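tool_call: predict_structure(chain=1)
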Amino acid sequence: MNRFFKERFPVFVSARNGSTPGSALPTFVYCDPAHHGISWFASYLDRHQVFLRRLPFFNVIYATPSRWKLDRASQVFTAIFRNANRLDPENLTRYFQVRRLWETRQHGSLTRADRDHLRAGDKQYKSEPFESAYQRWFAAGLREVDLDAIFGPSFLRQKIGFEAQLLPDSHDFLSCQNARPVRPSLQNARSAFRSGSRSRATALQAVAAPELPS
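tool_result:
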């Protein structure tokens, strides 16, 4: 686990309410010191979102001594994982099929509704894990879109949770636990998010808001 979560924040599992025996809920804790901007949390989620999206369920606890960060952290998390619990399988399947027709230049097969669906899907699914999944499916030349085979059987039924907790104090150990953001400056962060998914761009809007003192 330390190989992938270099921040070394607490990770624990607990029994799920109403779950079958042996089914455990993994919880990932992110501890944010007072002097860091919320962009550090956005970078943490972005680094690990492909892994997290492959879990059947998970919970994230965001802990900070800065009260003003609590709502902002919730906005960032929602922006990145907003589609996790309400993905429409038929909508995604149709997007894959219509996009392949477009990219193989079978434009005559597309109706106006198909083109509208493609434009909407480009905005909704131009992120991970959707983009890499589409590329694998396209390269394999498969006729049918088997979402369970592409994403794993748990992906379409993923359940996620988020909690924001206020710490009573800013402890020294928080400062050395945090890995630096991918690009610390806001200007570079905007560039990185712009080239990525729409979800990351939405998250950056929350990050870019004026930061308040702790």
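agent: The chain has two domains: 11-18+26-85+158-208, 89-151. Proceeding to next step.
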